[in-house]
Specification:
The protein is built from 9 helices and 14 strands. It is of the alpha+beta class. It binds N-oxalylglycine and nickel (II) ion (NI). One of its GO terms (molecular function) is jasmonic acid hydrolase. Its cofactor is L-ascorbate; Fe(2+).
């Protein structure tokens, strides 16, 4: 099954291309006309009206039953109708969010020779990378990234984390510890909102030891942003994603009713979204929604995508409690390891995988 050994072509760092000062992007990055970001709204101002829901999570911890109910209701609505929301007062200290983003920005600005020591391969994707998918000749995205494992402990390997800048590992250990806690709290809210036992989703993901990993995206400045994408349209293959966006450079677009909406990041908010495994577990009550990233001619952008996932070897299938003769299971059971091979081989392709796996009805 796992026969991917190496990249099909020499790797080009998009940051190096960008810094070379070229006026036109190479053909490899030019998207077909139908995928280009037409009607671009690079600063996310748009008409200023439509955006994903913004939810103050302080209500969950307020101890006031009416506030708790209202907040849970807002989360339920967002998961069903948008698959996305921004959260403030989520419990992760703002200074830690800023530090985490800062140490990664510093990493990407280290000399190339240092970064190359961490160059990744498609076998595990861990380390410094510049493409998703191994198809020779594929059109590529305008970004570099760094991928690492945090949980289960057996997969965490500090040697594969950057040793620079100083304090990088300490900051990331603290930050990822906080995000695992936040992920666990959200699992409870999502379970209860589905009418399941509070610990249902956590147990389905592996209980104490879930899967948790991080992809840090670096989107360099781009001389022709209208022709390419920083990250092509995809849905996240995992459970729940907690994204720390760049504080002042928008770029993430979410698909809603066939239109692309540019998210305007709120100060110290996380952007939280449902991944494919929660769409499967909830039997499509929760939606794993397509999103993509546009790039900017004048500004680079850094984002930290934290993935709270099922452990790789567990079978994921729609919760029995949500299945009835009127609501048959829409997906067959599959392990997450098997599931995520698809994006690792083919790269980001909208929602084609989760759609193709639907049981025939
Ligand atoms: C991702 C992702 C969005 C962003 O890494 O899966 O969708 O804003 N990132 O970088
Ligand atoms: Ni994503």
């Amino acid at each position: 099954m796992n026969c991917i050994q190496d990249w099909p072509e020499p790797i080009v760092r998009v940051q190096a291309l960008s810094e070379s000062g070229l006026g036109r992007i190479p053909d490899r990055y030019v998207k077909p006309a139908t995928e280009r970001p037409v009607g671009m709204d690079p600063m996310g101002d748009g008409d200023g009206i439509v955006d994903i829901p913004l939810i103050d999570l302080a209500g969950l911890f307020s101890g006031d039953p009416a506030m708790v109910r209202t907040t849970m209701g807002r989360v339920a609505e967002a998961c069903q109708q948008w698959g996305f929301f921004q959260a403030v007062n989520h419990g992760v200290p703002p200074y830690l969010m800023d530090q985490a983003r800062h140490v990664w920005r510093e990493f990407f600005h280290l000399p190339m020779e240092i970064k190359q020591e961490y160059g990744n391969s498609p076998k595990t994707y861990e380390g410094y990378g510049s493409r998703l998918g191994v198809e020779k000749g594929a059109i590529l995205d305008w970004s570099d990234y760094y991928f690492l494992h945090y949980l289960p402990h057996s997969l965490k390997d500090h040697k594969k984390w950057p040793a620079q800048p100083p304090h990088h590992r300490e900051v990331m250990e603290q930050y990822l510890g906080e995000l695992v806690k936040l992920g666990g709290r959200l699992m409870k809210v999502l379970s209860l909102n589905l009418g399941l036992k509070e610990d249902y989703l956590q147990n389905a993901f592996g209980g104490e030891e879930v899967g948790a990993c991080l992809r840090v995206n670096f989107y360099p400045k781009c001389p022709q942003p209208e022709l390419t994408l920083g990250l092509s349209s995809h849905s996240d293959p995992g459970g729940l994603t907690i994204l720390l966006p760049d504080h002042d450079v928008p770029g993430l677009q979410v698909r809603k009713d066939g239109k692309w909406i540019t998210v305007k990041p709120a100060p110290h908010a996380f952007i939280i979204n449902i991944g494919d495994q929660l769409q499967v577990l909830s039997n499509v009550i929760y939606k794993s929604v397509e999103h993509r990233v546009i790039v900017n001619p004048n500004l680079e952008r850094v984002s930290l995508a934290f993935f709270y996932n099922p452990r790789g070897e567990l079978l994921i299938e729609p919760a029995k409690e949500l299945i009835s003769p009127e609501n048959p299971a829409l997906y067959p059971p599959m392990t997450f390891n098997e599931y995520r091979l698809y994006i690792r081989l083919k790269g980001p392709r909208g929602k084609s995988q989760v759609e193709s796996l639907k049981s025939p009805r």
